[in-house]
Here is the input.
Amino acid sequence: MTSLALEKSERAAARPARGRRHTRSYWPFVLPALVVVGSVIVFPWAFTIWMSLHEWQIGGGSSFVGLANFARLGTDLRFHEALVHTIYFTSLAVVLPVVLGLFSAIVFHQNFKGRGFLRGLFVMPMMATPVAIALVWAMMFHPQLGVLNYLLSLVGIPPQLWVFHPSTVIPSLVLVETWQWTPLVMLIVLGGLAAIPTEPYESALIDGATGWQMFWHITLPLVMPFVMVAAIIRSIDAIKSFDIIYAITQGGPGTASETINLYLYSVAFAYYDIGYGSAIALVFFLMVVGLAVLLLWLKKRSQWTEMGAGA
Here is the structure.
């Protein structure tokens, strides 16, 4: 009995030592990933937070100013104007592609001759680079030489100034976003339409339901989670939009199309006010995160409503 008890105690003493050896043996595999995450994600954000707390002009020294850069945002009228432009641009650049993408998905879900070819043609704008798209649309928007005003003249509409007038510049930029990203929404919703069972439609036809009633009471509720996913992706992408706006208008005319992204770029890389630019970047990041959380909550709420309705 004494030897057995001694053997058990030795085994018990050996277990933690083996566990410590295994724990130590994992570190060489985990360490490279920790170094990459720390240097690529953690350090840039920590450095941005540090810069936002300093008054720092490139070429000059830096001094700690606490939250003064964030307080400056409250009195910066150009920042307020950029915020309004961002909300206006994002709202239009989400609603229009989602509505048109839903409509396009329903059309391309039907069986008709040449559907595959037209689908391929429809998604082609997604494959082009933003700068190439901007150059093409900048030529099309030209008041004298652009093809858009020529097309308007064919139906008797007077020529427009498009991106050259403050009141039409943001809707014109939204037109480019809608043209490029409506196919993405269509592809997401098409996946949802393909997953809908046929039994509800067969029952509705037996009950004499019209096409609109089947869309409103069957198709739309069942495809709504996919529409919400498309809306989330579009919202996050639209609020961060920079390349097309900068390549076509550079925030003009004046500051009529300057979003927060463009204002942040100007502050940091045109005026070299790195501290204030870092404060704008942090506030902008919190806005993107807040918008993503809100949309995820709406998506979860729509799923809960469907489950409640099904029960």
